[in-house]
Amino acid sequence: MLSEKGLHGLEKQLQPFLLLLVKTANAIMDQDISNYPVFVVYQEEEAAGLGLPVVAADATPDKWSINVTTLEELAAKKVVAMENVDRFTSVYKTNEGAICCLVWHEGNAQFVFIPATDAGTAEVVED
């Protein structure tokens, strides 16, 4: 998992893409694809099979790739256990106005909510 310092560095790298991520999340919700869009942020190829590409690794300084997926896909692929779906949706709803990211780093994954208006702070949620 990323340390607090690592998360803040990642947030700064994502800052130029926040508007794109917000528009992508809104499109997913507006088209009734899902109420729970999730951005998979990764450097390792093991996470590459989740979702659809949004930002290529060569666009970020530390080679982070960003894909967009949904809670439904994460549950179907058992990334989020079915017994945790209700808890996930509850936490997601309490972070309105934030971008939900599933950050894969060094074989570990963690959910992070990054405020769409201020990338200087993030709420880390352990699953």
Task: Provide an overview of this structure.
- With 127 residues, the chain is α+β, with helices and mostly antiparallel strands.
- It has one domain (4-125).
- The protein is 31% helix and 28% strand.
- The chain has helices at residues 4-14, 18-30, 71-76, 85-94, and strands at residues 37-42, 52-55, 65-70, 98-105, 108-115, 123-125.
- The chain has a 6-stranded mixed β-sheet with strand order 2-3-1-4-5-6.
- A hairpin with a 2-residue loop joins strand 4 (98-105) and strand 5.
- The chain is globular and about 35 Å long.
- The termini are close together.
- Mean pLDDT is 86; it is low at 119-127.
Could you tell me how far the N terminus lies from the C terminus, measured between alpha carbons in angstroms? 12 Å
* Total domain count: 1
**Stretches where pLDDT falls below 50 for ≥5 residues?**
119-127
Structural class based on helices, strands and sheet pairing: alpha+beta
